[in-house]
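Progress note, project year one: complex with thymidine-5'-phosphate.
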Amino acid sequence: MRGNFFISFEGGEGTGKSTQIRLLQDRLSGVGCTVKVTREPGGSEGAEDIRTMLVTGDTDRWTPMSEALLVFAGRVDHVERVIKPALKRGEWVLSDRFFDSTVAYQGVGGKLGVDKVRALQHLALGDFAPDLTLVLDIPAEEGLARAGVREADSNSGEDRFERVGDDYHRSLRQSYLDMCDEHPERCKLVSALGTVEEVAERIWQQVSPLVIKRECS
Ligand code: TMP
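Model obtained:
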């Protein structure tokens, strides 16, 4: 079954995006779709190098503008070398974060301003955008607690943003809620409270109409 749908997953720390992406990948594969799973920052060889610079080290290692320029440098590479070719092959692309993360983390959390981030987005990517963005939502405190447990288990050192204060993380959540209000067609809010299976079912309710649409076309 042909795909061509690009879905991004968004949300603050510890919302369970990676688990939900794996479950959606399994479900789509089960109905005959070919699925490419990817992530940001990263997703291509060069962008993975940039990821390491972004997610490790001191919290004040970069200014918000430097962070935004770094993520967009990686994002252009990721889009041109990985996402667009996969879409062209007729695959579904599921990305763990995309440009809305830059609006939330650098634009709002880092106080760079939403307009500046959207301007960079248009300069770097034109009107290329996900077909659907699923925003997984939980209170910031709960997400940080979940992310802390995950980091302690994996000891990846990729916790530079998790170590920024609680106010920053509360502002991220609000920025995602605002994005869902501003872009209701593309951005769908999904409660990440409850069991993994319950959240997966909420996600499937959003995605299954796309599967039906593709089967009918
Ligand atoms: P992850 O923990 O979801 O893999 O994301 C890594 C971190 O990178 C996360 O703390 C959010 C941050 N980030 C930004 O600050 N700006 C961006 O544009 C992206 C994609 C991620």
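Residues 63 and 110 are 8 Å apart (CA to CA).
The chain has a mean pLDDT of 93.
No further modelling is planned for this target in the current period.
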